Amino acid sequence: MEFISTRTQQLLAILDLAKRSLSLRTNNTSSRLGTAVLGKDELESFLQDAWNLYVNAIKSGLEENCLIIQDTCVPNKNVFILNTGSIAEKFGGPRHFNSKVEPLESYEQEDPKHPKELLKSDHDLMFVLEDLVICNQLPNVTNLRLEIEPNCSPGFEHFVQIYSINQDKSKTPLKNTLANKYISSIVNNAFFEGLRVPTSLGKRLKKFVQKNMLGIRCGNPNDLTEINIVQEGPSVNMKVTMRNRPDSILLDCDFLLALPLESWPQAADEWVTRTRKWPSQDDVKELSSGNCYVVPKPKFEGDENFWRISFSNQEVELAKKLPKRARNIYLRLKLFYKQRIKYEYPEFRSYHMKTAFYWWMEEQDMAEWEATQPTREELLDSLIQKLQSFITAGHLPHYFIRTVNLLPASSALERFRLVNHVTQASKAWIKLIRKRAQTVTVNSVEVESYSIKFRRQESKISKREPQKLDRSFSVPQRERSFSLKGARDRFFTR
Fold first, then answer.
1. What's the pLDDT tens digit per position in 387-436?
2. Which of 408, 176, 434 is nearest to 302 (CA)?
3. Of 214, 219, 401, 434, whose CB neighbour count within 10 A is largest?
4. Where is 29: in which H helix or E strand?
């Protein structure tokens, strides 16, 4: 039986509560969920504000300042902007959307339990350097400057190494830290000069926040708000907060640098040929012909060599193809995640929820979304059960690269399983030894007792002999040191 930790059992129990949650089943929730995401015109207005406030400045900075690779200045004449994440996928709304609201809606906005507040998200942006295309189908017949080395480690196929091809055909690793520092400097220089003195763009951003978020049309914005820019993993996070109140976030953005792959990654070929009910084969063909990218995400803490394959472009397009009813089901589950799971189980991310949702969608007949049966409650129960099955198994496959598990077991859980395995094996062998020797009691005068030492048969590391205890007054013992394989052969061949 697979071991399930107490913490996992508690998470499963909380998901059971979602099945009975009235707040997720009422019609009122549907109307409130509708205000949590932007409509087509609202999204266009939001993206236009973002372009004027920070997107265009960062894009210009990337195009004006080349990336240094092996002491060579590589210009970025073409920078493509990809809006990703919950806002672009309509799984959430932005914090800083400028819209006219009625008094009642304004009141609901301030309600922390309102879906519009709970589903607020940061603005995720990917800046793609289109001139730096990476060859991922060797041999490099197109003589691209960058090549990819696939990761053959099972379960880590979404991490790859990138090499820069020198004039003498030698290869030099392209470090992820180079890209992180590059975009971090571009963002900081766009909004600050000198010792964190806001540039004209920084002042304009703070003034926009003061006017549209705080409703204050006069006064010095520097006295009320401040801009904070930090490197968080592979992305650069920019927040505008109330001065001396970093928890009061008024604007939140994540900027990520990406490089395009020449073609669809081989590790994701299974996604193209997979048997499914959704999306359609025509949609799969369209999505697989789109661009994939790599982002400077380390494989582990302190790693500088690995990059991660990104399917953000496909995820945005896939979200557009969701039936309206299916999107509503997922938003209900995400709402419960924000209410009950996010802060109690920070290791369980909304990305895990979305991945489980897409796996569940592949099993659903498209006719269900136009019919009244199954009901919304039945569909929500089915989705929660699918999510629970992944959590129980401790295995959530990456949606595009099936061999990757997004829920790796923690080191503590692995140690527990190892100890549990050794303990059970020890008990089994002791039982066989006692049965063989026909012993009833241990350390008695009539019988011999055994001291068992386990060792890894393949290990060649010399170990210091343990210090023997003085047992001159105890029953004579015979010490036997053996491997599990050797003991099994002796006992079962007699």
1. 999 999 989 999 999 999 998 665 444 444 445 544 555 556 556 656 66
2. 176
3. 401
4. helix 27-34
